[in-house]
Design goal:
single chain; alpha/beta; TIM Barrel; 40% helix; 17% strand; globular
């Protein structure tokens, strides 16, 4: 069915098509026709992060920023759903247009800028959801919060989402909030993560259940920077690492009419770099911290390659724009065949 809908969606502005796609997935869920969009994959249970996943293929953050479509997205067969990025206060994000498709490359460039309704709105939405599987909530900072106070935004979001999240992802790697990636610098990251880890343990005691906290990093980091991040994560006892966010590198799409648009590049051109970072972090961390592989998955073979590089779980978002919900089952079966 998606093959029929895609030409129509691609006639629309990318962001408008994104919104219409979510509404359509919700409509299919409400009418009990989600299976027409894609057959649910057979279970492939995975234990990771102290959680049980129905299968290792998840939805990456960014598609459902406000957690408004959790049940509908879960009905497509994802093994886990990650919503957000959410911020303490609602914000409009960057001026439009801010999302661009590059169909020749199966890619998207976006500079959305954490557009969302704020953490309270997200919490209300996920409280209404009936989904009983693994739900990750991705947290960030408001655009107008200076970096020296950024940790306050993350603490606020962590406290607000803790009760409703299966795990929490700390996003300091989006290229679309000015200065955000500076938080990945070693000394800054050490203080930042230390503060959040203290809050995590306090909340665990308060709620009598410990929720995993993951860090999401950028693909545009040097080996020296990755070495430092690995040391910080191991020392702090962070529960998991997501490799990676979108890239600012345009080498793979040079010459395209949108290549010089500001923002993060996702989709097929991001695969090689994100998988290289994933494999490098797997070697640095030596199996002590579980990894989620994200970036450039547009086929089942891509998902299997992420597992081969050291990931325990995988996620995608842009791949669904080009391949539709059927990509979920393709990824599950490719990973099953590799096992």
């Amino acid at each position: 069915m998606y093959a029929l809908a895609r030409p129509f969606l691609f006639c629309l502005d990318a962001e408008r098509a994104h919104d219409l796609g979510l509404v359509s997935i919700e409509a299919a869920y409400r009418t009990g026709t989600s299976a027409l969009l894609a057959p649910r994959p057979k279970p492939l249970p995975v234990e990771a992060l102290g959680l049980r996943f129905d299968n290792p293929v998840g939805l990456a953050a960014g598609l459902d920023k406000n957690g408004a479509y959790v049940d509908a997205l879960a009905a497509l067969g994802f093994g886990f759903i990650e919503v957000g990025t959410t911020t303490p206060r609602a914000q409009a994000g960057n001026p439009k247009p801010r999302m661009f498709r590059l169909p020749e490359h199966e890619a998207v460039i976006n500079r959305l800028g954490f557009n969302n309704g704020g953490v309270d709105a997200l919490v209300r939405n996920v409280e209404r959801a009936t989904f009983g599987g693994v739900l990750g909530i991705n947290i960030g900072k408001n655009k107008d919060t200076p970096n020296e106070r950024a940790v306050e935004d993350y603490l606020h979001c962590l406290e607000r989402v803790y009760a409703r999240a299966s795990y929490v992802t700390v996003n300091i790697s989006s290229p679309n909030t000015q200065g955000l990636r500076d938080l990945q610098e070693e000394e800054t990251l050490k203080r930042f993560i230390g503060t959040l880890r203290e809050a995590q343990e306090r909340l665990a005691a308060q709620h009598r259940v410990r929720k995993p906290m993951l860090l999401k990093i950028a693909p545009d980091l040097s080996d020296t920077e990755l070495d430092a991040i690995a040391e910080v994560l191991l020392a702090a006892g962070v529960d998991g690492l997501i490799c990676t966010n979108t890239t600012i590198d345009r080498t793979a799409v040079a010459g395209h009419r949108y290549a010089n648009e500001a923002g993060g590049l996702s989709g097929k051109p991001a695969f090689a770099k994100s998988t290289e970072v994933l494999g490098g972090m797997a070697r640095r961390l030596g199996g002590k911290i579980p990894l989620i592989g994200v970036g450039g998955i547009v086929s089942g073979a891509d998902a299997a390659a992420k597992i081969a590089a050291g990931a325990t779980l995988v996620q995608f978002y842009t791949g669904m724009v080009y391949r539709g919900p059927g990509l979920i089952g393709d990824c599950v079966e490719a990973i099953r065949a590799r096992a």
